[in-house]
Amino acid sequence: MGNNNWVSHISIENVSFGYHNQKVIENLNLKVNKGEIVVIIGPSGCGKTSLLNLLNGYLLPQSGAVQMNGLIRTVHQHGSLFPWLTVNENIGIGLRHLKSQRTQQKAIQDMLELINMEGFEDHYPHQLSGGMKQRVELGRVLAGDADIILMDEPFSSLDYQARLKMRRELIGLLAKRPKTVIMVTHDIEEAVQIADRILVLTKRPSMVCAELDVNVAHPRHISDPDLIKIADNVLHELGL
Fold first, then answer.
1. For residues 187 and 198, is the Cβ–Cβ distance under 8 A?
2. Which of 8, 134, 158, 220 could cross-link 180 (Cys pair, CB 3.0–4.6 Å)?
3. DSSP class of 127
4. How far is CA 117 from CA 50, 109, 169, 173, in A?
5. DSSP characters over 143-159
6. Is this structure's pTM higher than 0.85?
7. 64-68, 97-101, 114-118: range with highest mean pLDDT
8. Which of the two residues, 8 and 52, has the higher pLDDT score?
């Protein structure tokens, strides 16, 4: 688990960023509370991934300030499992802060149980389905001492049924191991099923045009009238 002296809190104040004089993000403001799941949605190419890269420090803002109070881990769109490592070893990457090998192995076993991957400890990534790979990705992040998880369209490469399953599994995992999460997606259905709060971005240069609270208890069903209303509001803000 993370250092309890750190508060998982994210603050973005008047952040602007661009490439080669082309403004991508302009005067963006955002605050995320500890344990909150915020989903960011917007038009294709509006700068959602650039925003995540500003949060994890891969990019620096041209103006404004980004404050991340906690250890950060990222779940990437196309996966980042090491192909030469087994499931056991990939999850173990997130546990290098544990000094005892016995403690590490116990933590790995606990995570394998949590993500329903028992029996696949010695499999390599190429031997796993897309959904199984994503479960291992999540397991590696949750097993570590990260306070904040950034997710860049983590389920976009999966088929529809696998995406539905992974949404439910993500919520279940976060209920057992709470983290502060910012997820980027283009899928409105996914956003309303997962988020505590949805941020809708404009076209470039991106600004927040709407913030929508999703005060619906889990498990959520897409046929819920409240979720349908929120999804309609997102569509309206996107001009669709």
1. no
2. 8
3. G
4. 32, 9, 12, 13
5. HTT-SEEEEESTTTTS-
6. yes
7. 64-68
8. 52
